């Protein structure tokens, strides 16, 4: 006989958590009465065991007055928590995280004005509990035909009982999509349920007979039974090994086994042992026995173990470590970068290595750390980077005195302020959240100390840039650069690792008093290489040379006799200099400023004044232009029409008669 055991058979995370927390409460509170709100799980054998330990089930929270009440994994309506406070009931909430998620969705969307539909069994405690989070106003559907009886909605939120089949969810959802203007569906079937049902279907198609182990009143076990019967004619539901139809099983060559989420390992073990007694060579059985035995072994503090991620939230990761309790990795043990979302690091189904911090965190969970394993691996990377001089990528996570804290491979290192940049850093907070390339300049593994330098990386990059630039730089070449610094005598421009100087006289063809009149720090400009000296690491640049010299364009643009507008840019005793355009000035001699006699030009004009001037002469050879203000302002000549006036009395009379 061959026995095939479906994956994910038996306790799910929520059920296992509820049982562990109950056992822990019994050990911790021996002097108090302890109750469960309804049967803890749908398995009579487990319930009987709890009763033997003094844990009784109650159906009304008021019956637990002045005692401890454990909320089962199915969850309860919101009003139960309120009544618990009124009756001095100490609550231990073992609601399954997947069920809690459904409750939160229903509560949130009910508050937003959505109508709620729950796809599931209206008599199941989980569904009753979920309905209690929307004032018991949800529409509960368990069959497709029930959709027709629903009214039409404006806004509809749809959730699922965590243990229903995907087929039922898809079938009802398809019909509900036409029932509202806005539909928000949330497939809240738990991952463990989907995996358990999928593996059940897979095994059922391979075997002669299928054994489904679980309580007769367990909803998820009933779903497994339905799925098995769909693919295997000989499917049998048993609660314990005593219920096995041995007379039928012994005739089968291949037997499949699965178990509901509320079925304890010891019952599964008994069922398999009884069947395998007919064939001691069953390898699959031996493996299953070994897995069950392993689940009873306590993980030791300080050990590294492997586990499978079964659930991820914003604040923790739950890991199946093959023990009776699952492991919990709290957010502070996931990564040294607390801004990271755990969902970005792992997903359900991933196999990861973890470090055991505690075998019991006070609530029956094994406390684990992921970052400590990652950090140990990170030291190898740090040591290699230090010895080879290679760079590491780090993220700045904290500002401290004298520098910042950076995280790389889950290791925290220090970057002094002087090592953040090649220039002075005014505000360290500007670096928070940034990714930087760094070198390791010091480390001590025993003291867990690392010092990084971003400046070393920048300096190395600049050396390479300068080397490359010196190889290709030529006089007359046009290069793009960034203005880095201004002085009274010019502007320094970074052209790729080297700062070149644009002298104030080369900023513009026009007259410039301060470089800031032409450029500002941060400007990206094109410049011409005028000269360079590699030995002295100096480069002379020109900005005005990018444009044509104004005198080259004078011919044809300006002519003697033209009247144009200009700006007074300089005054002298002998006249005023007027700028026609940047780099093109003309002289208005003092005698050409006004018709009246003046002692100095400032009596009539001032610097910055716009004036009309007449071009008297252009000398391109000596690059001089003579201008006149007074000639430009002469009144226009009035045309005089000669008309003979009457001179005699007769002519005057004659003209009047006309």
From TrEMBL:
Keywords: 4Fe-4S, Iron, Iron-sulfur, Isoprene biosynthesis, Metal-binding, Oxidoreductase
Pathway membership: Isoprenoid biosynthesis; dimethylallyl diphosphate biosynthesis; dimethylallyl diphosphate from (2E)-4-hydroxy-3-methylbutenyl diphosphate: step 1/1; Isoprenoid biosynthesis; isopentenyl diphosphate biosynthesis via DXP pathway; isopentenyl diphosphate from 1-deoxy-D-xylulose 5-phosphate: step 6/6
Residues involved in isopentenyl diphosphate binding: 42, 74, 124, 218-220, 262
PROSITE patterns on file: S1 (PS50126)
Cofactor(s) demanded: [4Fe-4S] cluster
GO MF annotation list: 4 iron, 4 sulfur cluster binding; 4-hydroxy-3-methylbut-2-enyl diphosphate reductase activity; metal ion binding; mRNA binding
Top-rank lineage group of the source organism: Bacteria
CDD domains: lytB_ispH (cd13944), S1_RPS1_repeat_ec1_hs1 (cd05687), S1_RPS1_repeat_ec2_hs2 (cd04465), S1_RPS1_repeat_ec3 (cd05688)
Residue ranges of domain S1 motif in the record: 302-371, 389-455, 476-544, 561-630
Protein family: Belongs to the IspH family.
Listed name of the protein: 4-hydroxy-3-methylbut-2-enyl diphosphate reductase
Organismal lineage: Bacteria, Bacillati, Bacillota, Clostridia, Peptostreptococcales
Gene for this chain: ispH
């Amino acid at each position: 006989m061959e026995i095939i055991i479906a994956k994910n058979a038996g306790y799910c995370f929520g059920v296992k958590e509820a049982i562990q927390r109950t056992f822990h409460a019994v050990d911790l509170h021996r002097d108090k009465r302890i109750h469960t709100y309804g049967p803890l799980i749908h398995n009579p054998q487990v319930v009987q065991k709890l009763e033997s330990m003094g844990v009784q089930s109650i159906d009304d929270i008021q019956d637990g007055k002045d005692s401890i009440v454990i909320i089962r994994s199915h969850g309860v309506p919101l009003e139960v928590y309120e009544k618990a406070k009124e009756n001095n009931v100490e609550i231990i909430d073992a609601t399954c995280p997947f069920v809690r998620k459904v409750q939160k969705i229903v509560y949130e969307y009910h508050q937003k004005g959505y109508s709620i539909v729950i796809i599931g069994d209206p008599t199941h405690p989980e569904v009753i509990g979920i309905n209690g989070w929307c004032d018991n106003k949800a529409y509960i559907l368990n069959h497709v035909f029930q959709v027709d009886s629903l009214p039409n909605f404006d806004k509809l939120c749809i959730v699922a009982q965590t243990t229903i089949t995907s087929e039922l969810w898809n079938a009802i959802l398809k019909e509900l999509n036409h029932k509202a203007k806005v539909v928000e569906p949330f497939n809240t079937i738990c991952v463990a349920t989907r995996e358990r049902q999928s593996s059940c279907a897979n095994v059922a198609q391979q075997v002669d007979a299928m054994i489904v182990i679980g309580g007769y009143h367990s909803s998820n076990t009933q779903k497994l039974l339905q799925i098995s019967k769909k693919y295997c004619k000989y499917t049998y539901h048993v609660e314990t090994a005593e219920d096995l139809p041995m007379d039928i099983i012994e005739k089968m060559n291949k037997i499949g086994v699965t178990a509901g989420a509320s079925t304890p390992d010891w019952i599964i073990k008994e069922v398999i042992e009884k069947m395998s007694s007919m064939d001691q060579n069953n390898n699959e059985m031996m493996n299953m026995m070994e897995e069950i035995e392993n689940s009873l072994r306590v993980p030791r503090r300080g050990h590294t173990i492997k586990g499978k991620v079964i659930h991820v939230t914003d604040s923790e990761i739950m890991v199946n470590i093959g023990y009776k309790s699952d492991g919990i990795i709290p957010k502070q043990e996931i990564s040294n970068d607390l801004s990271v979302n755990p969902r970005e690091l792992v997903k359900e189904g991933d196999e990861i290595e973890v470090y055991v911090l505690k075998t019991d965190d006070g609530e029956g969970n094994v406390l684990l750390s992921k970052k400590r394993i990652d950090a140990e691996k990170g030291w190898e990377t740090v040591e290699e980077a230090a010895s080879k001089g290679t760079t590491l990528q780090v993220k700045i996570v904290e500002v401290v005195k004298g520098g910042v804290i950076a995280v790389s491979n889950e290791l925290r290192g220090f970057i002094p302020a002087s090592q953040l940049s090649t220039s002075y850093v005014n505000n360290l907070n500007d670096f928070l959240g940034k990714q930087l390339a760094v070198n390791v300049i010091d480390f001590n593994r025993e003291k867990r100390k690392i010092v990084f330098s971003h400046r070393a990386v920048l300096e190395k990059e600049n050396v390479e840039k300068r080397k490359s630039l010196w190889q290709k730089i030529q006089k007359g070449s046009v290069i793009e650069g960034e203005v880095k610094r201004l002085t009274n005598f010019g502007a320094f421009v970074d052209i790729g690792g080297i700062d070149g100087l644009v002298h104030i006289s080369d900023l513009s063809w026009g007259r410039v008093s301060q470089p800031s009149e032409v450029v500002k720090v941060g400007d990206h400009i094109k410049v011409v290489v005028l000269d360079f000296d590699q030995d002295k690491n100096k480069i002379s640049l020109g900005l005005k040379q990018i444009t044509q010299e104004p005198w080259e364009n004078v011919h044809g643009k300006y002519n003697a006799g033209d009247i144009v507008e200009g700006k007074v840019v300089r005054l002298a005793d002998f006249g005023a200099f007027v700028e026609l355009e940047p780099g093109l000035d003309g002289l208005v001699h003092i005698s050409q400023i006004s018709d009246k006699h003046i002692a100095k030009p400032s009596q009539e004009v001032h610097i910055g004044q716009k004036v009309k001037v007449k071009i008297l002469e252009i000398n391109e050879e000596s690059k001089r232009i003579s201008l006149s203000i007074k000639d430009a302002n002469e009144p226009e000549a009035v045309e005089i029409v000669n008309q003979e006036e009457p001179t005699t009395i007769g002519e005057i009379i004659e003209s009047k008669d006309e």
